[in-house]
Specification:
about 150 residues, five-stranded mixed barrel, DNA-binding, single chain, flat, OB fold (Dihydrolipoamide Acetyltransferase, E2P), mainly beta, NA-bd_OB-fold
């Protein structure tokens, strides 16, 4: 059974990337990460504190997996959108069956609350495309935090 999942959380470690073989499309990349989804509430003094939460294993596939592994780091605040799956697995310690929850993400977005700076790549242009500049010059990439 699967459920739609949308949640904000923090990466417990940097994503790990692996390439799996098989399936109808041959090889594919998978990025795996553990994310802590916390719930917050007000305490008696009016401050905000964590009042609960849970860890989930999150996987994302293909080009998004490669980007997640390249760009995300431990502690990053992310928004995860995907399907929460539950299945039975064998516990290595006891040998018994346990219920496991995992999120297969369609997207993992970096939230800006802990970002110091962003640098964008230059746009990819084919040789037949024209420049956006009236003079035909290629524009420098925009860096967040700098005037446009």
């Amino acid at each position: 059974m699967s459920q739609l999942f949308i949640g904000k959380g923090n990466l417990g470690s940097s994503p790990s990337l692996r390439t799996l073989k098989g399936g109808p499309n041959g090889e594919f990349d998978v990025a795996s990460m553990r994310v802590r989804f916390s719930r917050y509430g007000r305490n008696e003094q009016g401050g905000i504190e964590e009042v609960g939460g849970f860890w989930r294993e999150v996987e994302i596939y293909g080009a998004k997996a490669r980007d997640a592994a390249r760009l995300l780091r431990k502690g990053a605040r992310v928004l995860v959108m995907g399907e929460e799956l539950e299945y039975m697995a064998r516990d290595e310690a006891s040998g018994g069956q346990v219920m496991v929850f995992k999120i297969e993400a369609q997207d993992v977005a970096l939230l800006l609350s802990r970002v110091k700076s962003i640098e964008f790549e230059a746009p990819r242009r084919s040789s037949t495309e024209q420049s956006d500049s009236p003079t035909g010059e290629v524009q420098e990439p925009y860096h967040a935090g700098q005037p446009a």
